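User: Hey, my collaborator sent me this sequence without any context and asked if I could get a structure. I don't really work with proteins. Can you help?
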Amino acid sequence: MDYALCEATQHNMEGLTRAVTFYDINCQYNKHLQVWVDRSLFLEMVLELTIIPGIGLWHVHGHQDSCYVQYASNFIEGIGRIDGEIMETLWARLNLISPAARGMSSPHRKECLDYQMNDSNFCKMIHMKRTLCRKFKQAKNGIAESEKAFQRLDEAAPANSKTEWLASERIAQLSRINNPAAMDVYEINIKKAPSKKEIELRLLEEGNAQNAAPARRSVATWISMGLAIEEAQIALLIEVQSIGRRSTETQRLDIARQHDHLQGQIDGFTQSALMHLGEGFDADDDPNDLNLDILDDLDDDPADFSETSDTWTNSPELTVIPLPSNLGVDRCRRCMAEDLIPLEMSLREGQANDALHNLRIHLCNKVILFRTMVRQAKLQALKTRAWSQVTSVQQAVSLHASIYTKTRKQMMQLELGQDQLQTYKPLLREQLKISTAVGDPNARVDLGGSDHSWNEEFYRVHWLQAKSLRDRWKEELLVVELEMDWTCNFFLRKAAQWIERMGESSANRLRGHACYSGRQSRMYWHRMHRQLFKI
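Assistant: No problem. I've predicted the 3D structure and written it out in structure-token form, which is a compact way to encode the shape of the chain:
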């Protein structure tokens, strides 16, 4: 790969100072490319050539989210609208001969592939006019649509904000070679709250750094397991409640298996509690009643579920697990486990952050489903399918809303601070309602509240990405027009070459050669150049 790239940059590159390369893993490959070239005795790169790395649009969506704005062709200046998938489009033409090539010997297969690719190249050349005409029309339509969308955003944007956004875009484009992270201006830059996994990792690293006792070294993981068990209990409670009394054998079997799995997790967690909570804890003691705490988070009447739960012989989803928040602050102090309270508080904050983040994701998915499927469905079958997906998303919203409410109640048991009370407020039903207007990238919507940072940030990202799309379409039109001129010049030169060969063949009385040369000249002149010249 290194050798091929170095040789390609030295072939017919006189006077060029800028090149764009597309590679599936360019985000990693390009980081140390120059170092590898400098260390090698056989590789050489043109010093004046600046290489801009890119990733094809088909592959970039399988990378991290940050790779999209840093390496996607949509944000590279000067290349127009291309997908960056070069080899894949050529391989598609080989599918025609793949069945026949399987049984061939290696030399025969190589010869067949060479013939197929040469034929593919010739077909692309003779159909160049059709391709360029299609690309020209697409560029015209793309400019009109992207310009219209951008103007709607630009008219409503404050002048001072636009000046700041343009400056940040210019700095990002100039800095992208040495610092690809500068392209993050095209993405939302609001800092995300730490997740439960991040907090658990930090607590484990701090415990190892302080050489904590074995009983305290893995306490963060133990508490995290307890939080996961509580989430599983809430999910199972909601599922049991949705099934009701009239359940099928398959549903009852599935619930019984979940009961068995959950009970095993609770037994293991309770046995571990003896080591972490000390001798003052008795596993047979009953902490606070968890039944009503969880059921209060659900939408339906707890009495309805109490009647339903009587049909199940084992209900581990109602079992109270010995977490510090369930034991209470006073009892933790008596058990000499007071140091577990700040650990659970930190993990609870991460759990609440995860629940809120999942709520935002599922509410956005619900908006998209309404805009793209429910409202667009004309047939009853399509409407049924769309509403089924909406129902599935709504169940996820209810689950994470219940998890957040339960988490906040447990945090209150741990003596929540005033700053935390301001951060983790009660979740209201009105906050779970959606407006499909926020799914319109060209609509400026007031998200409510005194803090409009989310609104301004989303609007900035839409403005920058809409401008980038408009610029790429303008570049595409310019490139297509130049390609038309280059193609016309190429056809003229090829026609002139074959006319010259026809004259030489006629002078040497080679009539067959002269007829073939005349036919080739006619193909380039009449079939291609004239039709392109009319465009």
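In plain terms: The chain has a mean pLDDT of 82. You can pass these tokens on to your collaborator as they are.
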